[in-house]
Amino acid sequence: MRRLLSKTKLSANMNCRLDGNCVKAFGKAIHALSRIGDELWLDPTVKGLALRSVNSAHSAYACFLFSPLFFQKYSLQSTSEGGNEPIKCKLTMKCVLPLFRCLTSIERNVEQCHISTGPPKDQVMIQFFCRHGITKTHNLRFQESEALQAVFASHLCPNTLTAPARLLSDMVMHFPASQEEITLSVTPLRVTLKNFYEAGSDHMKMVYTEMSLHPDEFDCFQVAVESDVTFCLKELRGFLSFAESHCLPVSVHCSAAGKPVCFSVEDLALEATVVLATLTDSESREPSQPTASQTHTTPRCAEASHLAVGSCEANIREPRGTPAVTELVASSQGSPIPPRTDGLWLPVEDCTNAPTTPASSMVCSLLFRALFSEQDSDPANLTVLACYSDEEEENMEEEFARSPSL
Amino acid sequence: MPLLTQSQADDEEYVLVASLDNARNLSNILKAITFKDHAIFSATPNGLKVTVEDSKCMQANAFIQAEIFQEFTIKEDLVGFQVNLTVLLDCLNIFGGSTVPGVSTALRMCYKGYGYPLTLFLEEGGVVTVCKINTQEPEEPIDFEFCSSNVTNKVILLSESLKEAFSELDMTSEVLQITMSPNQPYFRLSTFGNSGNAHYDYPKDSDMMELFKCTKTQTNRYKMSLLKPSTKALALSCKVSVRTDSRGFLSLQYLVRNDDGQICFVEYYCCPDEEVEEE
Predict the structure, then answer these.
(1) Which positions make up the signal peptide (chain B) (predicted)?
(2) Chain B residues lying within 8 Å of A132, measured CB to CB
(3) Residues of B in contact with A140 (CB under 8 A)
(4) Under 8 Å CB-to-CB from A126, ≥6 apart: which residues?
(5) Residues of chain A predicted below pLDDT 70
(6) Do A92 and B195 touch (CB under 8 A)?
(7) Tens of pLDDT along B233-258?
(8) Closest-CA residue to A183 (of A248, A276, A272)
(9) Closest Cα of chain A to B206: distance in Å?
(10) Between chains, do A91 and B161 touch, taking CB under 8 Å as contact?
(11) pTM of this prediction?
């Protein structure tokens, strides 16, 4: 992949220091992110260091933002050329994860960790200062890359639940590790988690698990719209494990089937979010689903459990008006979903690869907006958000600007 | 447990008889050098040396002194033969290698001399197995001409500090670079892999550093594929000495304690991969 360092973009260097306890938390975040995707974006900003990952089918996204408070020291320094845009690094998970693989050993041995970018320009240095005076230094090459960011207006979600991470972990524990998808059903009276099975599968061989919680079990319970959302469980487990280790309450934001579901935790030092695409309710596919003739409008996201990936890398992918994904994506129900021809599909690097999970085969991608979209993009292609209702569409541009960036 | 299945007369035919109450005292240490099928056995009145070589650039030796054996009788000054090491280990573990305390496999290893197989009598719980392994003409082990007087740099480290580093080594790196110096970074292991490089630094005053004697700064690279097998010896050992000589040849010596707390040695020699400018 070609480097994207454009001539006009000057960069700043990040330098941060974590103490031993925080290194373990940092490592746990990387473990959680490794359950999502094969690449890790390191995005140092003034708000803190963001770690992001997205799966190849673009149906799961996670972001861990460590505020400067998390670090013993956190600084962004302009380079001598006077640039003030921090470097955006893309690392492969398989070169970062081994450094943090054994968390118990890190806890035992690592006293301090330094992470810094440049010089040289394309390397990030991760240095562990360990017991007995031993120092381990890793210089990892990265690709300069615009980070993908799923924009999710959680404050617009009709349903919000907050519960201790332990509660959710305990519920999720009842599902076997092989369980791909689960359905979260929310009504004003109760919350149910059950495993999702395909219509055609052999019911005699299935173990059907369902558990319910009373609203009282939640720290916060706001349900405006009854909904059933089905999403991939595997991608959530790492996040729940992280949340549990920090004893943080988890907020769940969801709405109708087909719209993404968001899980988040936060405290003073960090914010972590996982956004997962959900299956559309195939029985209620409405005729108002966008067709080729509606290329001029921004389609309703209710049906768009396929969401497009916004252009994120200037020279590699440019938004195109014409649909690029023309092959059929096999759905888990066996009937292929016809390609979307509404102009929303943008070339997605890996979308043409055979998706490995049923959820990703039904539903392809979340919408990503480039963090720094300097190029003029076709608004119709990039302004589709994880939006929720028609009346939002008129305010789309404003909401877009106001949505909390993850 | 006594293994008396042979009459006294047979014993006179053997040029080498070595007995162990616990065959693991031999098999464990041999596992540390099993990266090739064939091994050269050299027995002298001092004990047994087992040698495995790779590519004419690397050699591993396991030393089991005569004192470790319950019986060690040798009728010549040097008895040498070559056997398939994998087969030998399979035989030594023929009873399944159980680690139940109090239960061990007894071994009596006998060799009649050139042209004869290596005979193993193994007994556990009253059950006796006899194995005969074909021997070959022993090759001459390479003499790396590594002598103490030529050693420029030497450190002794506690193995536990190196074990983690070796298990984490970036295997996409073709070489392992070892830097030893009287100055910073003192002792450094480096890899150069697909995603970048990594350095493991051990300062001379670390409490893991038992001995530090470096006279000049040397950086040498060794093929990772040749050194990676030494991780097994490292895992068994409690201490390791790392020495380089003026040619950049590497000697790793591992101090291994067996099940009974006795000391054995494993040694690795390796040629440097390329000439690196000495600073």
Answers:
(1) none
(2) 161, 206-208
(3) 195-196
(4) A96, A99, A113, A114, A115, A137, A138, A140
(5) 1-12, 78-87, 119, 147, 198-203, 282-406
(6) yes
(7) 999 999 999 999 999 999 999 999 98
(8) A276
(9) 5
(10) no
(11) 0.75
